[in-house]
Protein backbone atom coordinates (compact mmCIF):
# COMPACT_ATOMS: atom_id res chain seq x y z
CA UNK A 1 0.00 0.00 0.00
CA UNK A 2 1.35 3.42 -0.99
CA UNK A 3 1.02 5.66 2.07
CA UNK A 4 1.86 8.86 0.19
CA UNK A 5 -1.38 9.07 -1.81
CA UNK A 6 -5.06 8.32 -1.23
CA UNK A 7 -6.73 5.02 -2.10
CA UNK A 8 -9.14 5.72 -4.96
CA UNK A 9 -12.41 3.93 -5.66
CA UNK A 10 -15.04 4.49 -8.36
CA UNK A 11 -18.53 3.14 -7.65
CA UNK A 12 -20.90 2.60 -10.59
CA UNK A 13 -24.53 1.88 -9.74
CA UNK A 14 -27.80 2.07 -11.62
CA UNK A 15 -30.79 4.03 -10.43
CA UNK A 16 -32.41 2.69 -7.27
CA UNK A 17 -29.54 0.38 -6.33
CA UNK A 18 -28.36 2.41 -3.37
CA UNK A 19 -25.07 3.77 -4.70
CA UNK A 20 -25.43 6.87 -2.53
CA UNK A 21 -26.08 4.78 0.57
CA UNK A 22 -23.03 2.65 -0.21
CA UNK A 23 -20.85 5.76 -0.47
CA UNK A 24 -22.19 7.12 2.83
CA UNK A 25 -21.46 3.79 4.47
CA UNK A 26 -17.85 3.85 3.27
CA UNK A 27 -17.29 7.43 4.45
CA UNK A 28 -18.74 6.59 7.87
CA UNK A 29 -16.66 3.42 8.06
CA UNK A 30 -13.50 5.42 7.33
CA UNK A 31 -14.43 7.99 10.00
CA UNK A 32 -15.05 5.34 12.65
CA UNK A 33 -11.81 3.57 11.74
CA UNK A 34 -9.93 6.85 12.14
CA UNK A 35 -9.10 7.64 8.51
CA UNK A 36 -9.71 10.73 6.39
CA UNK A 37 -12.07 10.26 3.43
CA UNK A 38 -13.94 12.29 0.87
CA UNK A 39 -16.65 11.38 -1.65
CA UNK A 40 -18.23 13.06 -4.63
CA UNK A 41 -20.93 11.95 -7.05
CA UNK A 42 -21.75 12.53 -10.70
CA UNK A 43 -25.48 12.07 -11.42
CA UNK A 44 -26.33 9.88 -14.37
CA UNK A 45 -29.33 9.98 -16.68
CA UNK A 46 -32.71 8.27 -16.56
CA UNK A 47 -32.98 4.52 -16.04
CA UNK A 48 -30.69 2.26 -18.05
CA UNK A 49 -29.26 4.86 -20.47
CA UNK A 50 -26.52 5.51 -17.92
CA UNK A 51 -25.40 5.23 -14.32
CA UNK A 52 -24.62 7.44 -11.36
CA UNK A 53 -20.96 7.25 -10.40
CA UNK A 54 -19.58 7.91 -6.94
CA UNK A 55 -15.92 8.67 -6.33
CA UNK A 56 -14.25 7.98 -3.00
CA UNK A 57 -10.74 8.72 -1.75
CA UNK A 58 -9.37 7.43 1.56
CA UNK A 59 -5.95 8.37 2.88
CA UNK A 60 -4.33 5.12 4.10
CA UNK A 61 -2.63 6.67 7.15
CA UNK A 62 -4.73 7.11 10.33
CA UNK A 63 -5.47 10.70 11.30
CA UNK A 64 -3.78 10.09 14.65
CA UNK A 65 -0.47 9.63 12.84
CA UNK A 66 -0.74 12.75 10.65
CA UNK A 67 0.06 15.14 13.53
CA UNK A 68 -2.83 17.48 12.79
CA UNK A 69 -2.29 17.59 9.04
CA UNK A 70 -5.12 16.87 6.60
CA UNK A 71 -4.66 15.31 3.17
CA UNK A 72 -5.80 17.08 0.01
CA UNK A 73 -8.34 15.04 -1.97
CA UNK A 74 -9.42 15.22 -5.58
CA UNK A 75 -13.01 15.87 -6.58
CA UNK A 76 -13.00 13.77 -9.74
CA UNK A 77 -11.59 10.38 -10.74
CA UNK A 78 -8.56 10.50 -13.01
CA UNK A 79 -8.50 7.95 -15.86
CA UNK A 80 -5.87 5.32 -15.24
CA UNK A 81 -5.35 6.39 -11.62
CA UNK A 82 -7.97 4.25 -9.92
CA UNK A 83 -7.01 1.63 -7.38
CA UNK A 84 -10.39 -0.07 -7.65
CA UNK A 85 -13.70 0.10 -9.44
CA UNK A 86 -16.90 -1.63 -8.32
CA UNK A 87 -19.93 -1.89 -10.55
CA UNK A 88 -23.34 -3.57 -10.29
CA UNK A 89 -23.74 -4.19 -14.03
CA UNK A 90 -21.34 -5.79 -16.50
CA UNK A 91 -21.83 -3.49 -19.47
CA UNK A 92 -21.53 -0.45 -17.21
CA UNK A 93 -18.18 -1.83 -16.06
CA UNK A 94 -16.88 -2.07 -19.60
CA UNK A 95 -18.28 1.38 -20.38
CA UNK A 96 -16.13 2.85 -17.62
CA UNK A 97 -13.16 0.79 -18.81
CA UNK A 98 -13.75 2.24 -22.26
CA UNK A 99 -13.53 5.70 -20.70
CA UNK A 100 -10.01 4.79 -19.60
CA UNK A 101 -10.79 4.51 -15.90
CA UNK A 102 -9.17 1.12 -15.34
CA UNK A 103 -5.41 0.57 -15.63
CA UNK A 104 -4.20 -3.01 -16.29
CA UNK A 105 -1.26 -2.62 -13.91
CA UNK A 106 -3.11 -0.90 -11.05
CA UNK A 107 -6.90 -1.25 -10.92
CA UNK A 108 -8.87 -3.97 -9.16
CA UNK A 109 -12.24 -4.43 -10.85
CA UNK A 110 -15.18 -5.87 -8.91
CA UNK A 111 -18.23 -6.33 -11.09
CA UNK A 112 -21.49 -8.16 -11.26
CA UNK A 113 -21.94 -10.63 -14.09
CA UNK A 114 -25.65 -9.77 -14.36
CA UNK A 115 -27.00 -7.59 -17.14
CA UNK A 116 -29.66 -4.90 -17.17
CA UNK A 117 -30.27 -4.32 -20.86
CA UNK A 118 -29.74 -0.82 -22.20
CA UNK A 119 -32.35 1.08 -24.18
CA UNK A 120 -30.36 0.53 -27.35
CA UNK A 121 -30.20 -3.21 -26.75
CA UNK A 122 -33.95 -3.40 -26.19
CA UNK A 123 -34.73 -1.41 -29.33
CA UNK A 124 -33.22 -4.01 -31.64
CA UNK A 125 -35.71 -6.22 -33.49
CA UNK A 126 -33.20 -9.06 -33.38
CA UNK A 127 -31.04 -10.07 -30.41
CA UNK A 128 -29.35 -6.76 -29.63
CA UNK A 129 -27.67 -7.88 -26.41
CA UNK A 130 -23.97 -7.34 -25.99
CA UNK A 131 -22.11 -10.63 -25.63
CA UNK A 132 -21.27 -11.16 -21.94
CA UNK A 133 -18.27 -13.32 -22.84
CA UNK A 134 -16.74 -10.46 -24.82
CA UNK A 135 -17.41 -8.04 -21.97
CA UNK A 136 -15.65 -10.35 -19.52
CA UNK A 137 -12.61 -10.47 -21.79
CA UNK A 138 -12.43 -6.66 -21.63
CA UNK A 139 -12.60 -6.76 -17.83
CA UNK A 140 -9.81 -9.34 -17.65
CA UNK A 141 -7.59 -7.46 -20.10
CA UNK A 142 -7.86 -4.06 -18.40
CA UNK A 143 -7.60 -4.93 -14.73
CA UNK A 144 -4.77 -5.92 -12.43
CA UNK A 145 -7.16 -8.16 -10.55
CA UNK A 146 -10.84 -8.81 -11.12
CA UNK A 147 -13.70 -10.41 -9.22
CA UNK A 148 -16.87 -11.31 -11.10
CA UNK A 149 -20.06 -12.74 -9.62
CA UNK A 150 -23.81 -12.24 -9.87
CA UNK A 151 -24.46 -9.50 -7.34
CA UNK A 152 -28.15 -9.39 -8.14
CA UNK A 153 -28.60 -13.07 -7.36
CA UNK A 154 -26.69 -12.71 -4.07
CA UNK A 155 -28.82 -9.71 -3.09
CA UNK A 156 -32.02 -11.58 -3.92
CA UNK A 157 -30.98 -14.63 -1.93
CA UNK A 158 -30.14 -12.45 1.06
CA UNK A 159 -33.31 -10.38 0.74
CA UNK A 160 -31.39 -7.12 0.49
CA UNK A 161 -30.34 -4.50 -2.05
CA UNK A 162 -27.26 -4.72 -4.21
CA UNK A 163 -25.44 -1.90 -2.37
CA UNK A 164 -24.95 -4.17 0.66
CA UNK A 165 -23.47 -6.84 -1.61
CA UNK A 166 -21.13 -4.29 -3.20
CA UNK A 167 -19.98 -3.21 0.26
CA UNK A 168 -19.17 -6.82 1.17
CA UNK A 169 -17.21 -7.21 -2.05
CA UNK A 170 -15.17 -4.07 -1.32
CA UNK A 171 -14.45 -5.28 2.19
CA UNK A 172 -13.50 -8.76 0.99
CA UNK A 173 -11.05 -7.37 -1.56
CA UNK A 174 -8.93 -5.78 1.18
CA UNK A 175 -8.87 -2.45 -0.64
CA UNK A 176 -9.14 -0.33 2.51
CA UNK A 177 -7.31 -0.85 5.82
CA UNK A 178 -10.57 -1.28 7.74
CA UNK A 179 -11.47 -4.25 9.92
CA UNK A 180 -14.51 -6.28 8.95
CA UNK A 181 -16.10 -5.50 12.30
CA UNK A 182 -16.16 -1.78 11.46
CA UNK A 183 -17.98 -2.43 8.19
CA UNK A 184 -20.57 -4.57 9.94
CA UNK A 185 -20.99 -2.09 12.79
CA UNK A 186 -21.87 0.76 10.44
CA UNK A 187 -24.33 -1.40 8.49
CA UNK A 188 -25.94 -2.63 11.71
CA UNK A 189 -26.25 0.88 13.12
CA UNK A 190 -27.63 2.61 10.03
CA UNK A 191 -29.52 -0.25 8.42
CA UNK A 192 -32.69 -0.10 10.52
CA UNK A 193 -35.08 -3.02 10.06
CA UNK A 194 -33.20 -4.21 6.98
CA UNK A 195 -29.85 -4.43 8.76
CA UNK A 196 -29.91 -8.20 9.15
CA UNK A 197 -30.65 -8.75 5.45
CA UNK A 198 -27.91 -6.27 4.50
CA UNK A 199 -25.44 -8.12 6.71
CA UNK A 200 -26.34 -11.42 5.05
CA UNK A 201 -25.65 -9.95 1.62
CA UNK A 202 -22.45 -8.35 2.94
CA UNK A 203 -21.18 -11.63 4.38
CA UNK A 204 -21.88 -13.63 1.22
CA UNK A 205 -20.08 -11.13 -1.01
CA UNK A 206 -17.18 -10.90 1.45
CA UNK A 207 -16.72 -14.66 1.26
CA UNK A 208 -16.81 -14.65 -2.55
CA UNK A 209 -14.28 -11.87 -3.05
CA UNK A 210 -11.87 -12.45 -0.21
CA UNK A 211 -8.39 -13.49 -1.46
CA UNK A 212 -8.37 -16.92 -3.09
CA UNK A 213 -12.15 -17.15 -3.55
CA UNK A 214 -13.01 -14.77 -6.33
CA UNK A 215 -12.31 -15.39 -10.01
CA UNK A 216 -14.50 -15.64 -13.09
CA UNK A 217 -13.84 -19.37 -13.29
CA UNK A 218 -14.61 -20.06 -9.65
CA UNK A 219 -17.73 -17.96 -9.21
CA UNK A 220 -20.94 -19.56 -10.52
CA UNK A 221 -22.70 -17.56 -13.18
CA UNK A 222 -19.72 -15.32 -13.96
CA UNK A 223 -20.09 -15.71 -17.67
CA UNK A 224 -23.81 -16.21 -17.86
CA UNK A 225 -25.75 -13.94 -20.15
CA UNK A 226 -29.22 -12.63 -19.46
CA UNK A 227 -32.07 -15.07 -19.78
CA UNK A 228 -34.45 -14.63 -22.68
CA UNK A 229 -37.95 -15.20 -21.38
CA UNK A 230 -39.51 -15.61 -24.81
CA UNK A 231 -37.28 -18.53 -25.71
CA UNK A 232 -38.34 -20.96 -23.01
CA UNK A 233 -41.64 -21.66 -21.42
CA UNK A 234 -41.94 -20.97 -17.70
CA UNK A 235 -40.78 -23.98 -15.77
CA UNK A 236 -39.12 -25.66 -18.76
CA UNK A 237 -35.56 -24.34 -18.45
CA UNK A 238 -34.45 -27.62 -16.88
CA UNK A 239 -36.57 -29.79 -19.18
CA UNK A 240 -35.33 -33.30 -19.83
CA UNK A 241 -35.81 -35.05 -23.12
CA UNK A 242 -37.67 -38.38 -22.78
CA UNK A 243 -35.34 -41.33 -23.50
CA UNK A 244 -37.60 -42.54 -26.30
CA UNK A 245 -37.05 -39.27 -28.17
CA UNK A 246 -33.34 -39.00 -27.42
CA UNK A 247 -32.57 -41.90 -29.74
CA UNK A 248 -34.57 -40.39 -32.60
CA UNK A 249 -32.65 -37.11 -32.81
CA UNK A 250 -28.92 -36.22 -32.82
CA UNK A 251 -27.31 -35.24 -29.55
CA UNK A 252 -26.62 -31.69 -30.75
CA UNK A 253 -30.39 -31.11 -30.98
CA UNK A 254 -31.37 -32.56 -27.60
CA UNK A 255 -31.16 -29.42 -25.45
CA UNK A 256 -33.30 -27.28 -27.75
CA UNK A 257 -35.63 -30.17 -28.53
CA UNK A 258 -36.22 -30.84 -24.83
CA UNK A 259 -37.27 -27.22 -24.26
CA UNK A 260 -39.48 -27.17 -27.34
CA UNK A 261 -41.15 -30.48 -26.55
CA UNK A 262 -41.83 -29.44 -22.94
CA UNK A 263 -43.26 -26.17 -24.15
CA UNK A 264 -45.66 -27.91 -26.53
CA UNK A 265 -46.87 -30.22 -23.75
CA UNK A 266 -47.47 -27.28 -21.45
CA UNK A 267 -49.02 -25.12 -24.20
CA UNK A 268 -51.54 -27.50 -25.78
CA UNK A 269 -50.95 -31.09 -24.74
CA UNK A 270 -49.53 -34.38 -26.02
CA UNK A 271 -51.14 -34.23 -29.46
CA UNK A 272 -49.61 -30.84 -30.13
CA UNK A 273 -46.21 -32.07 -28.94
CA UNK A 274 -46.48 -34.96 -31.40
CA UNK A 275 -47.21 -32.51 -34.22
CA UNK A 276 -44.07 -30.60 -33.23
CA UNK A 277 -41.99 -33.79 -33.34
CA UNK A 278 -43.53 -34.84 -36.64
CA UNK A 279 -42.53 -31.56 -38.22
CA UNK A 280 -39.00 -31.80 -36.86
CA UNK A 281 -38.59 -35.31 -38.23
CA UNK A 282 -39.32 -33.97 -41.73
CA UNK A 283 -36.60 -31.36 -41.28
CA UNK A 284 -34.13 -33.91 -39.89
CA UNK A 285 -34.69 -36.26 -42.82
CA UNK A 286 -34.14 -33.47 -45.33
CA UNK A 287 -30.99 -32.30 -43.56
CA UNK A 288 -29.54 -35.79 -43.52
CA UNK A 289 -30.04 -35.96 -47.28
CA UNK A 290 -28.38 -32.56 -47.75
CA UNK A 291 -25.52 -33.23 -45.32
CA UNK A 292 -24.89 -37.00 -45.06
CA UNK A 293 -21.62 -36.50 -43.20
CA UNK A 294 -23.19 -34.19 -40.61
CA UNK A 295 -20.46 -31.60 -41.21
CA UNK A 296 -22.80 -28.88 -39.93
CA UNK A 297 -23.83 -30.84 -36.82
CA UNK A 298 -27.56 -30.71 -37.71
CA UNK A 299 -27.79 -26.95 -37.38
CA UNK A 300 -30.98 -26.72 -39.45
CA UNK A 301 -32.82 -29.14 -37.19
CA UNK A 302 -31.55 -27.36 -34.09
CA UNK A 303 -32.68 -23.95 -35.34
CA UNK A 304 -36.05 -25.35 -36.33
CA UNK A 305 -36.47 -26.94 -32.91
CA UNK A 306 -36.09 -23.47 -31.43
CA UNK A 307 -38.05 -21.23 -33.79
CA UNK A 308 -40.77 -23.76 -34.53
CA UNK A 309 -41.53 -24.11 -30.83
CA UNK A 310 -41.74 -20.34 -30.40
CA UNK A 311 -44.08 -19.95 -33.36
CA UNK A 312 -46.30 -22.91 -32.49
CA UNK A 313 -46.72 -21.58 -28.94
CA UNK A 314 -48.07 -18.25 -30.18
CA UNK A 315 -49.41 -15.82 -27.60
CA UNK A 316 -53.16 -15.38 -27.39
CA UNK A 317 -55.65 -14.35 -24.72
CA UNK A 318 -55.76 -17.90 -23.35
CA UNK A 319 -51.99 -18.00 -23.00
CA UNK A 320 -51.86 -14.61 -21.28
CA UNK A 321 -54.53 -15.65 -18.78
CA UNK A 322 -52.65 -18.85 -18.06
CA UNK A 323 -49.34 -17.09 -17.38
CA UNK A 324 -50.91 -14.40 -15.19
CA UNK A 325 -52.78 -16.88 -13.01
CA UNK A 326 -49.88 -19.20 -12.16
CA UNK A 327 -48.64 -19.63 -8.61
CA UNK A 328 -45.08 -18.96 -9.77
CA UNK A 329 -46.12 -15.55 -11.00
CA UNK A 330 -47.68 -14.66 -7.64
CA UNK A 331 -44.51 -15.80 -5.87
CA UNK A 332 -42.39 -13.70 -8.21
CA UNK A 333 -44.49 -10.59 -7.54
CA UNK A 334 -44.24 -11.18 -3.80
CA UNK A 335 -40.48 -11.42 -4.08
CA UNK A 336 -40.19 -8.29 -6.22
CA UNK A 337 -42.17 -6.12 -3.81
CA UNK A 338 -40.62 -7.89 -0.79
CA UNK A 339 -44.02 -8.56 0.77
CA UNK A 340 -43.85 -10.10 4.21
CA UNK A 341 -46.22 -12.59 5.76
CA UNK A 342 -48.21 -9.83 7.48
CA UNK A 343 -48.36 -7.56 4.43
CA UNK A 344 -51.49 -7.17 2.32
CA UNK A 345 -50.65 -7.50 -1.37
CA UNK A 346 -53.11 -6.59 -4.09
CA UNK A 347 -52.41 -7.19 -7.79
CA UNK A 348 -54.55 -5.77 -10.58
CA UNK A 349 -54.11 -6.89 -14.16
CA UNK A 350 -55.28 -4.67 -16.98
CA UNK A 351 -56.47 -6.22 -20.24
CA UNK A 352 -57.82 -4.60 -23.37
CA UNK A 353 -58.76 -7.39 -25.79
CA UNK A 354 -60.06 -6.25 -29.16
CA UNK A 355 -61.99 -7.86 -31.96
CA UNK A 356 -58.93 -9.83 -33.24
CA UNK A 357 -58.39 -11.45 -29.82
CA UNK A 358 -62.00 -12.62 -29.58
CA UNK A 359 -62.11 -13.65 -33.24
CA UNK A 360 -59.03 -15.80 -32.71
CA UNK A 361 -61.09 -18.32 -30.71
CA UNK A 362 -64.04 -18.35 -33.12
CA UNK A 363 -64.46 -20.56 -36.19
CA UNK A 364 -63.15 -19.07 -39.41
CA UNK A 365 -66.55 -18.11 -40.84
CA UNK A 366 -67.65 -16.37 -37.66
CA UNK A 367 -64.27 -14.74 -37.08
CA UNK A 368 -64.39 -13.19 -40.54
CA UNK A 369 -67.72 -11.57 -39.74
CA UNK A 370 -66.38 -10.13 -36.49
CA UNK A 371 -63.26 -8.75 -38.16
CA UNK A 372 -65.31 -7.34 -41.05
CA UNK A 373 -67.54 -5.54 -38.55
CA UNK A 374 -64.51 -4.08 -36.79
CA UNK A 375 -62.98 -2.90 -40.08
CA UNK A 376 -66.21 -1.16 -41.00
CA UNK A 377 -66.06 0.71 -37.70
CA UNK A 378 -62.57 1.91 -38.58
CA UNK A 379 -63.63 2.95 -42.08
CA UNK A 380 -66.36 5.07 -40.53
CA UNK A 381 -63.76 6.96 -38.49
CA UNK A 382 -64.25 5.09 -35.22
CA UNK A 383 -61.51 3.50 -33.18
CA UNK A 384 -61.10 -0.30 -33.28
CA UNK A 385 -63.38 -1.99 -30.77
CA UNK A 386 -61.80 -3.09 -27.51
CA UNK A 387 -62.99 -4.14 -24.07
CA UNK A 388 -60.96 -2.60 -21.22
CA UNK A 389 -60.79 -4.92 -18.21
CA UNK A 390 -59.32 -4.53 -14.75
CA UNK A 391 -59.08 -7.85 -12.93
CA UNK A 392 -58.14 -8.16 -9.27
CA UNK A 393 -55.83 -11.14 -9.50
CA UNK A 394 -55.43 -11.28 -5.72
CA UNK A 395 -59.18 -11.95 -5.25
CA UNK A 396 -60.94 -15.27 -5.61
CA UNK A 397 -63.27 -13.92 -8.30
CA UNK A 398 -60.38 -12.48 -10.33
CA UNK A 399 -58.36 -15.68 -10.13
CA UNK A 400 -61.39 -17.78 -11.05
CA UNK A 401 -62.00 -15.56 -14.09
CA UNK A 402 -58.40 -15.94 -15.26
CA UNK A 403 -58.34 -19.69 -14.71
CA UNK A 404 -61.63 -20.06 -16.56
CA UNK A 405 -60.17 -18.19 -19.51
CA UNK A 406 -56.98 -20.23 -19.33
CA UNK A 407 -59.12 -23.35 -19.38
CA UNK A 408 -60.31 -22.51 -22.89
CA UNK A 409 -57.16 -24.14 -24.23
CA UNK A 410 -59.32 -26.81 -25.85
CA UNK A 411 -61.14 -24.10 -27.84
CA UNK A 412 -57.91 -22.77 -29.33
CA UNK A 413 -57.62 -25.55 -31.91
CA UNK A 414 -61.09 -24.72 -33.23
CA UNK A 415 -60.34 -21.04 -33.68
CA UNK A 416 -59.40 -19.03 -36.76
CA UNK A 417 -56.08 -17.90 -35.30
CA UNK A 418 -54.96 -21.49 -34.84
CA UNK A 419 -55.91 -22.38 -38.43
CA UNK A 420 -54.10 -19.35 -39.85
CA UNK A 421 -50.97 -19.91 -37.79
CA UNK A 422 -50.75 -23.59 -38.72
CA UNK A 423 -51.17 -22.78 -42.43
CA UNK A 424 -48.29 -20.27 -42.31
CA UNK A 425 -46.13 -22.62 -40.26
CA UNK A 426 -46.77 -25.35 -42.81
CA UNK A 427 -45.69 -23.08 -45.64
CA UNK A 428 -42.48 -22.14 -43.85
CA UNK A 429 -41.80 -25.77 -42.93
CA UNK A 430 -42.26 -26.89 -46.55
CA UNK A 431 -39.84 -24.16 -47.69
CA UNK A 432 -37.22 -25.33 -45.17
CA UNK A 433 -37.56 -28.96 -46.25
CA UNK A 434 -37.48 -28.17 -49.98
CA UNK A 435 -34.63 -25.70 -49.56
CA UNK A 436 -32.59 -28.19 -47.54
CA UNK A 437 -32.95 -30.82 -50.23
CA UNK A 438 -31.72 -28.34 -52.85
CA UNK A 439 -28.81 -26.98 -50.81
CA UNK A 440 -27.92 -27.15 -47.13
CA UNK A 441 -27.22 -23.44 -46.79
CA UNK A 442 -30.52 -22.50 -48.43
CA UNK A 443 -32.45 -24.62 -45.93
CA UNK A 444 -30.46 -23.15 -43.07
CA UNK A 445 -31.15 -19.56 -44.13
CA UNK A 446 -34.87 -20.25 -44.47
CA UNK A 447 -34.92 -21.88 -41.03
CA UNK A 448 -33.27 -18.80 -39.53
CA UNK A 449 -36.12 -16.71 -40.92
CA UNK A 450 -38.10 -17.92 -37.92
CA UNK A 451 -36.43 -14.99 -36.13
CA UNK A 452 -38.79 -12.68 -37.99
CA UNK A 453 -41.76 -13.98 -35.98
CA UNK A 454 -41.76 -12.08 -32.71
CA UNK A 455 -43.86 -9.85 -30.52
CA UNK A 456 -47.63 -9.56 -30.74
CA UNK A 457 -50.25 -7.49 -32.54
CA UNK A 458 -49.02 -5.43 -35.48
CA UNK A 459 -45.38 -6.42 -34.89
CA UNK A 460 -46.22 -10.11 -35.10
CA UNK A 461 -48.36 -9.65 -38.21
CA UNK A 462 -45.64 -7.63 -39.92
CA UNK A 463 -43.07 -10.32 -39.20
CA UNK A 464 -45.25 -13.04 -40.71
CA UNK A 465 -46.01 -10.94 -43.78
CA UNK A 466 -42.29 -10.29 -44.30
CA UNK A 467 -41.49 -13.99 -43.96
CA UNK A 468 -44.14 -15.08 -46.45
CA UNK A 469 -43.08 -12.40 -48.94
CA UNK A 470 -39.46 -13.55 -48.74
CA UNK A 471 -40.47 -17.18 -49.24
CA UNK A 472 -42.68 -16.34 -52.22
CA UNK A 473 -40.12 -14.24 -54.07
CA UNK A 474 -36.63 -15.33 -53.01
CA UNK A 475 -36.70 -19.02 -52.06
CA UNK A 476 -37.38 -20.49 -55.50
CA UNK A 477 -34.64 -18.95 -57.64
CA UNK A 478 -32.76 -21.11 -60.15
CA UNK A 479 -29.53 -20.81 -58.15
CA UNK A 480 -29.72 -22.21 -54.63
CA UNK A 481 -26.58 -20.33 -53.58
CA UNK A 482 -27.95 -17.02 -54.84
CA UNK A 483 -31.30 -17.69 -53.16
CA UNK A 484 -29.58 -18.41 -49.84
CA UNK A 485 -27.59 -15.19 -50.08
CA UNK A 486 -30.67 -13.15 -50.95
CA UNK A 487 -32.72 -14.61 -48.09
CA UNK A 488 -29.93 -13.92 -45.57
CA UNK A 489 -29.70 -10.32 -46.74
CA UNK A 490 -33.47 -9.85 -46.66
CA UNK A 491 -33.72 -11.31 -43.17
CA UNK A 492 -31.00 -9.03 -41.83
CA UNK A 493 -32.65 -6.03 -43.46
CA UNK A 494 -36.05 -6.88 -41.96
CA UNK A 495 -34.52 -7.16 -38.48
CA UNK A 496 -32.58 -3.92 -38.85
CA UNK A 497 -35.50 -1.67 -39.78
CA UNK A 498 -39.04 -2.07 -38.46
CA UNK A 499 -40.34 0.42 -41.05
CA UNK A 500 -39.39 -2.03 -43.82
CA UNK A 501 -37.49 0.44 -46.01
CA UNK A 502 -34.28 -1.57 -45.78
CA UNK A 503 -36.17 -4.77 -46.60
CA UNK A 504 -37.80 -3.23 -49.69
CA UNK A 505 -34.42 -1.99 -50.90
CA UNK A 506 -32.89 -5.43 -50.41
CA UNK A 507 -35.75 -7.12 -52.22
CA UNK A 508 -35.31 -4.78 -55.17
CA UNK A 509 -31.56 -5.42 -55.17
CA UNK A 510 -32.20 -9.14 -55.64
CA UNK A 511 -34.88 -8.70 -58.29
CA UNK A 512 -37.90 -9.26 -56.05
CA UNK A 513 -40.92 -6.94 -55.82
CA UNK A 514 -41.33 -4.70 -52.82
CA UNK A 515 -43.95 -5.56 -50.27
CA UNK A 516 -47.44 -4.45 -51.28
CA UNK A 517 -48.77 -1.30 -49.69
CA UNK A 518 -51.46 -1.84 -47.09
CA UNK A 519 -54.69 0.10 -47.22
CA UNK A 520 -55.08 2.71 -44.53
CA UNK A 521 -58.32 4.62 -43.88
CA UNK A 522 -58.28 8.37 -44.38
CA UNK A 523 -60.12 10.29 -41.68
CA UNK A 524 -61.56 13.68 -42.56
CA UNK A 525 -61.83 16.04 -39.64
CA UNK A 526 -64.21 18.99 -39.60
CA UNK A 527 -62.34 22.26 -39.22
CA UNK A 528 -63.28 23.89 -35.91
CA UNK A 529 -65.02 27.26 -36.21
CA UNK A 530 -62.98 30.37 -35.72
CA UNK A 531 -63.19 32.02 -32.29
CA UNK A 532 -66.39 34.05 -31.99
CA UNK A 533 -68.03 32.41 -35.03
CA UNK A 534 -69.74 29.44 -33.48
Describe the protein in words.
Helix 1 (19-33) crosses helix 7 (180-190) and helix 11 runs antiparallel to helix 12. With 534 residues, the protein is α/β, with parallel strands linked by helices. The strands form two sheets. Strands 2-3-1-4-5-6 form a six-stranded mixed β-sheet, with helices on both faces. It has a two-stranded antiparallel ribbon with strand order 7-8. It is globular and about 90 Å long. The protein is built from 23 helices and eight strands. It has four domains: 7-209, Pyruvate-ferredoxin Oxidoreductase, domain 3 (3-Layer(aba) Sandwich), CATH 3.40.920.10; 228-313, no CATH class; 317-412, no CATH class; 414-523, no CATH class. The longest helix is centred in the last third of the chain and has 23 residues, at 416-438.
Blueprint (SSEs and pairs):
Layout: E1 7-13, H1 19-33, E2 37-42, E3 52-58, E4 84-87, H2 90-98, E5 108-112, H3 119-123, H4 132-141, E6 145-149, H5 151-158, H6 162-173, H7 180-190, H8 195-209, H9 243-246, H10 254-267, H11 270-290, H12 299-312, H13 317-324, H14 327-337, E7 348-351, H15 355-359, H16 364-379, E8 389-392, H17 396-406, H18 409-412, H19 416-438, H20 440-448, H21 457-474, H22 480-496, H23 501-509
Parallel strand pairs: 1-4, 4-5, 5-6
Antiparallel strand pairs: 1-3, 2-3, 7-8
Helix pairs in contact: 1-6, 1-7, 2-4, 5-6, 5-8, 6-8, 7-8, 10-11, 10-12, 11-12, 11-19, 12-19, 12-20, 13-17, 19-20, 19-21, 20-22, 21-22, 22-23
Question: What labels describe this entry?
Answer:
534 residues, alpha/beta, Pyruvate-ferredoxin Oxidoreductase, domain 3, six-stranded mixed β-sheet, globular
Amino acid sequence: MNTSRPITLLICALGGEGGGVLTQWLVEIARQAGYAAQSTSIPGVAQRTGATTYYLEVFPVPLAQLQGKWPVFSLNPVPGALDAMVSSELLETTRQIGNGMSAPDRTTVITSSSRTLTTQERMQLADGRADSADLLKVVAAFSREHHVFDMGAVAQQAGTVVSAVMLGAIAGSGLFPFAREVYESVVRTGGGKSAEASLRGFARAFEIVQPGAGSPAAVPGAGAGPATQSEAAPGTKSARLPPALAGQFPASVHDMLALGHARMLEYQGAAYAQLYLQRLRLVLEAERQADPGARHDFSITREMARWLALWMAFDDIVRVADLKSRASRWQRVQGEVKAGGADLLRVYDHFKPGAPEFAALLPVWLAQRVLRWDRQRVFKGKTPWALPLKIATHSASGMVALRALAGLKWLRVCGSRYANEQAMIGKWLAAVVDGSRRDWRLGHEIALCGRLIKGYGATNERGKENLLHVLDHLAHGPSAAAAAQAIAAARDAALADDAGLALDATLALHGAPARPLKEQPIRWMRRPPAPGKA
